[in-house]
Amino acid sequence: MKKSLLLALAIAPWALFAADDGPHEFVSKIERFDPAFDQLVAPGAKIEKLAEGFRWSEGPTWFEGGVVFSDVLANTAYRWAEGMTRAEVFLRPSGLMQTTPGFRETGSNGLTRDAQGRLLLAQHGERRIARFENGTFTPIADRFEGKRFNSPNDLAVRKSGDIYFTDPPYGLDKINASPLKEQPHNGVYRVTPDGKVTLLSATLTFPNGIAFSPDEKLLYVAVSDGRAPRIVAYDVKADGTLAGERTFFDAVPHRGPGLKGSCDGLKVDRAGNLWATGPGGVLVISPAGKLLGRINTGEPTGNCCWGDDGSTLYITANYFLVRVKTLTKGAGW
Predict the structure, then answer these.
(1) Dihedral of CA 327/223/108/196: which sign?
(2) Closest C-alpha to 122, from 145, 147, 156
(3) Is residue 7 assigned to a domain?
(4) Residue 268 belongs to a domain with what CATH number?
(5) Based on the structure, what is the number of domains in the chain?
(6) Which of 28, 33, 118, 262 could bond 229 through an S-S bridge, CB–CB 3.0 to 4.6 Å?
(7) Which residues sit opposite 307 in a β-bridge?
(8) Which domain holds residue 215?
(9) Strand, helix or coil at 243?
(10) Per-residue pLDDT for 19 more than 80?
């Protein structure tokens, strides 16, 4: 196997699949591994394709009555709402404001809302966390100890207003070997409402998706290292820092022929179940770490979010935006 292919398998969940904007067949199914899954997704539920034609769809969030999501490679954020026949451009550019060499993924990635309902973005190209409001981007955090971030990937907001985010180097050409890389680690960070940035973890090879348990006592971080894809859990201490890093879910045993993708974005429902992208699509994992079922999109899958009344799961799956109705609701709904 060529060295370049080995590198892609090790570090880029989408690298072998997202290539063009042409027509692609969408083949999906819902797989049930435990009876408890029937309490979360009805036996007759279907995966519905909503929009297509993207290069690598990512980071969806429910915003102002629709779902907004990133096309990281196209430097564009799109919006889809009920009744639309196709997604419309919401932000272009979404992550890199002007042509700058040295980037392989220029757009926004993870999106979410703050306590005031404003849109927050992890911007690969600008290497920052930013807020978008009234047509303007406001930087929230772009440096730690005077050095630029790599390319912030995903983010989660606590009730306190603190933003926790991951910072792998996926936005940069040559990844860890990029001459633009200033941080010696690929970190997990927190930025407080007053702008103070704290490094919470520097031990993960490729931290990616991030989410809190419903009581905010646990923080989950997906690790998209192709050699050791997994989800780790941390205890959130009273001061907001992290302790007790451990593997919550090992995705290696769940890889197999035809199961595209790796650990990437994730969300949590109100009962504490994780809806985490991984081999084959979205893996539904109990709070005890047991795999209950899989929403198999047939594609490498970037992320998901809750929408509508909180019971619809919207999923960004490579070229596609899809959804499935569930019997639960997202944490916080």
Answers:
(1) positive
(2) 156
(3) no
(4) 2.120.10.30
(5) 1
(6) 262
(7) 312
(8) 16-325
(9) strand
(10) no
Q: Percent of the chain having pLDDT more than 90?
A: 92
Residue 214 is classified by DSSP as: T
Q: Residue 136: CB partners within 8 Å, gap ≥ 6?
A: none
Q: Tokens 């392989």 belong to which residue?
A: 104
Q: Is residue 8 part of a domain?
A: no
Cα–Cα distance, 121 to 69 (Å, whole number): 10
Tokens of 174: 């040559």
Neighbouring residues of 256: CB distance < 8 A, sequence distance ≥ 6: 279, 280
Identify whether the C-beta of residue 181 lies closer than 8 Å to the C-beta of residue 169. Answer: yes
Q: Which two tokens stand for residue 108?
A: 């926004």
The span from the CA of 105 to the CA of 87, in Å, is 21
Residue 192 C-alpha from the chain's centroid = 21
Which H or E run includes 168?
none
Whole-prediction pTM: 0.94
Q: Which residues contact 21 (CB under 8 A, 6 or more apart)?
A: 53, 54, 55, 319
Question: Is residue 333 a part of any domain in this protein?
Answer: no
* pLDDT for position 40: 98
Answer yes or no: are the C-beta atoms of 18 and 319 closer than 8 Å: yes
